[in-house]
Amino acid sequence: MGGMDHYRWLFTRGDEGLILLTRGEGIYVWDESGRRYIDGSGGPICVGIGYGVREVLEAVQRQMMRIPFAHSSHFTAESVLECAEKLVSMAPKGLTRVFFTSGGSEATEAAAKMARQYHLERGEPSRYKVIARWQSYHGNTLGALSMSGNIARRRRYEPMLIDFPHIPPAYCYRCWFGKTPKECGLECAWALEWAIKASGPEYVAAFIAEPVVGATLGTVPAPEGYFKVIREICDRYGILFIADEVMTGFGRTGKNFGIEHWDVRPDIIATAKGISSGYMPLGAVIASEEVYSTFKEPFAHGHTYGSHPVACAAGAAVIDYIKRHRLVERSAELGKELLSKLERLKEHPTVGDVRGLGLFAGIEFVKDKESKEPLPPEARFSRRVMERCLHNGLIVYPGWGGVDGIRGDHIQVAPPLIVTGDQIMEIVDLLDKSLWEAERSL
Description:
single chain; Aspartate Aminotransferase, domain 1; Aspartate Aminotransferase, domain 2; 7-stranded mixed beta sheet; 4-stranded mixed beta sheet
């Protein structure tokens, strides 16, 4: 998931303050001076179908005229039902029930509460813990941040967080076990079983993970077989598996949802961002029929703007656009081209790793390629790269602290799914130029 600090940096030009954007079209945005930028990261990995799509604007306008608000504790609207139906049509088979939120942090927190109530309904009131991974990011509310393993973002609020267990990430470039992919035996996945036993299985409600770790690690996909082990362990101990698909949903990775790359079905999906392509604040929790059917009482959770009719109208229109223009398939095809072209950046002395899935790529920077020693934090290298990119008319998504919460620099490259091959080439050329400039400034 993305977050507030990175989003502020994304639209900040050095010490000059926030850039005032005035319009957008396709993959481009313009500022108040008329300067054009390529949105090479879809904002914070949010904009999937591009800017200025008339169908979405018209859907929002129609719903505004019909009924702009309906409190979900008593009412619903056609746009809400329509969006839920379309969402289920994209979800993995068996995930059939939808709970709408206003964004990703609300979605992951709602998923955790749903898992808690699921176990209460089953007569297991001791189950409440959610196991997550270090260097994950699941949102900015206190509950979502408690699940998050983002060390830097947790630090200020540590006394206020729930003491949930965390296990090592699936981070092959910097394996926490000192193994290579050929010899690892997926120890990072089997660490879940150890954490369950250490916590006491009777206290564990769920495990949450991003199929591709986003803002914290810079687009790190899980290794082959990882999620099959996770699914096996969750089933063995009666624990729900929550897939955090806030960044990885709606075609971003070349599948409808990122978890589908590993042929594993979660019990619950938390999603946002691409569901409305940034046109309106919208998130959702998608639960399996098995989870839903356990509830004898209504789900004891909600917000004023949950199931908002206008936001859902935008979401339904975005899903229609994704399907009509085959943007999921397009992401899979052009994603290979993006990663192939980004590989050439390894000629830079600071580029240690290039990785990703679909139109969702990450570049990790290092001081020394052989030892993988990170650049010193005081160099603020990912921010230097971002600033040089902005100067050259390109928006990328910077991140830092991926190694230990302090050290480590990366950027994410994830243009809207409507991007063309020529535009990918231009993105990589501008990034190449900006990298040389940032390296010279060190």
